[in-house]
Recover the amino acids of this structure.
């Protein structure tokens, strides 16, 4: 945190960017902020009327009567897919390219708005014919394909609530989500291409459905992507292409209340199983649109590229919905940044003349490393002059990575939007506006207009600038989480805790504001959530997974800083059969890593494994995680260990396998 707060390099947006920007200059930013402060309902009401097609206009902006279950634009009706597709065609963009799809093998398919609408409608009609209706939950377990986007829009079209599960999650993780959400159907693919390999999806889906715990799933719809062999269960499984082929390209959208859930997306919390974050239709879409316009300054000629996966919220807001809702052309990429080599991103920017590029610090850091001794794949070896704006998301970006990105990718010409937000917030919360905000590397700068972000102490009282504290949002905003699916109490406890007074939204991050500028710098999670390569992971989730292994008696999981992945997962394990050493320890460590990979997914595999005869505990039996964090970092323990029941354990745990 220290070096960041001392960061005093300031980068002003270029004058010509400011001139053409949607929010042009700090006066324009301040004006919008003042408008929100003076008349909150009026501000959001105006924007919602200007930016969304309402089948039936709303009469009330914000209903706080059942806070914190806020309702926005509730009596208005609309449809997300209609706003993204039909509306563009009505505006004369039917022939405009909506998607530039680049497959793993480099082949490119362009899809116009008209074609995309046709495909969405055919599939939506097929889903309706199967009996899937408004309010039903549909799991989407697919990779980055045109069909993945079609599937999400087809659900939205008929009012079915989609829940996308990242294609890297295991059968067990998929099953948990199918059960929790009560899905009636699963849309998947035979497999996926990634980095030149063909990986299964349908087989994992079959495994998820094999235990009889998902009796509600009546249909499995399979996109033919890799052509690999799959087992089709008669009466349950159908091919996506076959059921859509003969359907009409016209499909009347389901007009839903603005509060109708558009999707549920699972994310890790500090305790228990992943939470199903429920988002609305109207408020969510409004913020996806506004942040495309404000943060990304989107213009008709832009070629927008967000490198996220539709399995994460970034893919929802800035691939599936946001770019299409503003009529943009966007790149959709199936593959990985390192295949066929680590110049893939730069090659694609050059090839498609991308103008806006949005990626994660972890990708930037790994590409810095890869290109440090290979000039051929260094961004300087490509023509990246089409770029005019860069973005960063998912984790704090360290100033060194920021500078590299700014100079080598952006040619010291493109502003960087370091966007702080979360699955729960639906869209950007704190970010520089590219045509207004002077940038400081490593700081996400200032809240977007209408977002009342603040820093408070543990009693919920504002802290003065220059002091660290807890990041909160003081007023509800349209795209905020509506509830945790099936667990409203957990929603209140997680996000509106009584300790803070019950009205502040608790983000779960620590932050500090610069004493002069008021700029925000995020200092990291304050709960037991880790951020590994921009992926959120609950330590408890990994602990429960480890103790479910027959060899394990007890386990504790903490994070430690990692140059490449931001944080790395470190596990401390007590085996039932005693502490292993030497080759045996290595063997068990590998076994446990694979176990976690299989139970949760490869992204949750621990980096360090340490074995002890016990874990450091207080006399009352509480695991002292702060000591484990010190050990994980490889630092000497200087803290008081007098409350520790078994200090000798610490020596054992220093040894990482
Ligand atoms: O800790 C913050 C970090 O990622 C968390 C949210 O993770 P998730 O819900 O998976 O959403 C990621 C994509 C929006 C936050 O609580 N985070 C996200 N963006 C930033 C960030 N930390 C610092 N700077 C950011 N720009």
């Amino acid at each position: 945190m220290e070096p960041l707060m001392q960061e005093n390099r300031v980068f002003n947006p270029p004058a010509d960017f400011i001139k053409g920007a949607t929010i042009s200059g700090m006066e324009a930013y301040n004006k919008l902020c003042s408008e929100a402060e003076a008349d909150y309902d009026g501000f959001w009401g105006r924007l919602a009327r200007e930016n969304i097609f309402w089948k039936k206009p709303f009469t009330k902006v914000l209903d706080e009567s059942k806070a914190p279950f806020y309702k926005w634009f509730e009596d208005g009706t609309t449809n997300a897919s209609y706003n993204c597709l039909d509306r563009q065609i009505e505006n004369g963009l039917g022939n405009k390219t909506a998607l530039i799809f680049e497959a793993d093998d480099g082949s490119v398919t362009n899809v116009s708005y008209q074609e995309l609408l046709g495909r969405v409608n055919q599939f939506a009609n097929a889903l309706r014919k199967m009996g899937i209706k408004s309010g039903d939950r549909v799991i989407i377990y697919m990779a980055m394909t045109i069909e993945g986007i079609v599937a999400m829009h087809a659900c939205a079209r008929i009012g079915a609530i989609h829940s996308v599960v990242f294609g890297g999650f295991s059968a067990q993780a998929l099953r948990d989500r199918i059960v929790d959400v009560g899905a009636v159907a699963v849309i998947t693919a035979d497999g996926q291409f990634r980095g030149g390999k063909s990986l299964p999806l349908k087989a994992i889906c079959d495994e998820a459905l094999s235990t009889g715990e998902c009796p509600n799933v009546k249909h499995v719809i399979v996109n033919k992507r890799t052509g690999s062999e799959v087992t089709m269960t008669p009466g349950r499984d159908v091919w996506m292409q076959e059921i859509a082929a003969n359907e009409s390209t016209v499909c009347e959208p389901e007009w839903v209340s603005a509060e109708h859930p558009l999707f549920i997306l699972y994310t890790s919390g500090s305790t228990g199983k992943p939470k199903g974050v429920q988002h609305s239709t109207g408020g969510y879409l409004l913020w996806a649109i506004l942040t495309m316009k404000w943060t990304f300054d989107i213009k008709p000629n832009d070629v927008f590229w967000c490198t996220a996966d539709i399995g994460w919220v970034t893919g929802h807001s800035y691939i599936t919905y946001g770019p299409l809702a503003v009529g943009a052309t966007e790149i959709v990429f199936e593959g990985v940044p390192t295949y066929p080599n680590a110049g893939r991103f730069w090659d694609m920017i050059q090839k498609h003349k991308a103008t806006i590029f949005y990626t994660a610090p972890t990708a930037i850091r790994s590409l810095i490393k890869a290109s440090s001794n290979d000039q051929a794949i260094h961004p300087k070896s490509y023509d990246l002059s089409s770029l005019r704006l860069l973005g960063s998301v998912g984790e704090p970006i360290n100033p060194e990575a920021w500078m590299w990105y700014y100079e080598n990718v952006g040619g010291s010409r493109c502003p960087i939007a370091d966007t702080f937000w979360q699955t729960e917030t639906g869209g950007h919360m704190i970010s520089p506006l590219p045509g207004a905000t002077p940038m400081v590397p490593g700081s996400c700068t200032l809240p977007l207009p209408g977002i009342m972000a603040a820093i408070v102490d543990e009693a919920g009282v504002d802290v003065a600038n220059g002091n660290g504290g807890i990041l909160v949002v003081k007023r509800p905003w349209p795209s905020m989480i509506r509830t945790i699916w099936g667990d409203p109490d957990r929603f209140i406890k997680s996000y509106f805790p009584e300790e803070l007074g019950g009205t502040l939204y608790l983000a779960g991050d620590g932050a500090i504001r610069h004493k002069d500028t008021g700029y925000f710098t995020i200092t990291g999670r304050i709960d037991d959530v880790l951020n590994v390569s921009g992926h959120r992971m609950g330590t408890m989730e990994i602990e429960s997974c480890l103790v479910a292994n027959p060899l394990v008696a007890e386990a504790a999981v903490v994070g430690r800083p990692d140059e490449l992945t931001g944080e790395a997962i470190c596990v401390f394990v007590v085996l039932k059969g005693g502490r292993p050493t030497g080759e045996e320890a290595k063997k068990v460590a590998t076994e446990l890593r694979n176990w976690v990979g299989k139970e949760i997914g490869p992204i949750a595999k621990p980096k360090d494994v340490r074995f002890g005869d016990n874990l450091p505990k207080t006399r009352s039996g509480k695991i002292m995680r702060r000591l484990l964090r010190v050990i994980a970092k490889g630092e000497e323990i200087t803290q008081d260990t007098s409350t520790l029941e078994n200090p000798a354990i610490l020596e054992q745990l220093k040894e990482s396998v």
In short: The pocket of adenosine-5'-monophosphate-propyl ester is lined by residues 267, 313-314, 393-396, 418-423, 444, 507-509, 522, 525, 531, 536 (CB under 6 Å). The mean pLDDT is 96. The domain at 533-653 is CATH 3.30.300.30 (GMP Synthetase; Chain A, domain 3). The CA atoms of residues 390 and 416 lie 5 Å apart.
